Amino acid sequence: MWRREFLGLIGGAAAAWASVVRAERAPIVIGYLSARAPDESKHLLAAFREGLKSEGFIEGQNVEIRFRWAEGQYSRLPGMAAELARENVALLVATGGEPSALAAKAATSTIPIVFTVGGDPVRIGLVASLNRPGGNATGVSLLTTAPEVKRFSLLHQVVPNAAVIGVLINPNYAEADDQRQEVREAARAVDRRVEIATPVEEHQLEPAFASLIERQATALLVSADPFFDTRRNQIVALAAKYRLPTMYQFRDYALAGGLMSYGISITDGYRQVGIYAGQVLKGTKPADLPIYQSIRFEFVINLKTAKAQGIEIPDKLLSLADEVIE
Fold this sequence. Notes:
Helix content: 40-55%
Strand content: 15-25%
Radius of gyration: 24 Å
Order of helices and strands: HEHEHEHEEHEHEHEHHEHEHEEHHE
Strand order of the largest sheet: 7-6-8-9-10-12-13
Largest sheet: 7 strands, mixed
Number of strands: 13
Distance between the termini: 83 Å
CATH class of the largest domain: Alpha Beta
Low-confidence stretches: 13-23
CATH architecture of the largest domain: 3-Layer(aba) Sandwich
Shape: elongated
């Protein structure tokens, strides 16, 4: 009897210990909130996971990631952020620009947040300063909106005879007013007229292109905006249909057949988000991680598209390009 009781005690202790070990090894849960869409973000997720892995965290092993995708519909983000916060995730990663970051910040003041934004996170109240963010949030500024004037200038050099340049701007984006002002100032500097179209839904994209053609636009600047990124292929196809030489913000557009792009390496930015996420999971406070500002810019030209649209790219610009797609 004594032997059976002893063995039973040992067996129970072993089972309890195994349960403790399994509990200790339970994956850390990350909430991932994005204004973008999953299909067009695969390369960004790969970069994010690479950054996480460099800090020792691997999805499916010691971390679990719970995704919420707004697919360009910014009004969905507050509810998604609140849902993730209620699940008591260890970390909230908010990507796809200001709409996600602001929704995450509004949802929790205690769960650590690592975000991506396109502009200045201090100005919109996400952090106290770039060097010492304070609070529960830090992240990466992708500087997507800052180069709008540069994009306009490059487009003008490719189509110097375009008297009217169309611009797509999403008025629901936090930086929309600044984008309007910047492109208008850039247009005045080269004595050109700007016509702005403001689609906010997918079904409004083609009418926006048609309206710009009616207003005599012969070139197009697509401003930085996550909603446009989620409809990248559609926008590139419409630019081809209406034969509008078009400038975009990310290399992804040029790879998809867009004429050219100028902006930061977005994959580098998302890799840094993964690195910061890993550091926070190790115990570093977001308040102590300075805002990372991307500095690697890429100018990409798609020569195949240029030839299809009958556009001659100046040799000077070809020499400046970081990548020429042939």
